[in-house]
Amino acid sequence: xxxxxxxxxxxxxxxxxxxxxxxxxxxxxxxxxxxxxxxxxxxxxxxxxx
Length: 50
What we know:
0% of the residues lie in helices and 58% in strands. It is an all-beta fold.
């Protein structure tokens, strides 16, 4: 797992989270994990070269 930063919709703030890379159905890569404060799922879209 690596650390990423994403916007948590529930907290309305940017949060650093530990997540894993996943390939979405449309072929893009994203990092998904849980917000360390509230536990909501957060997603960070990654670049094409990631």
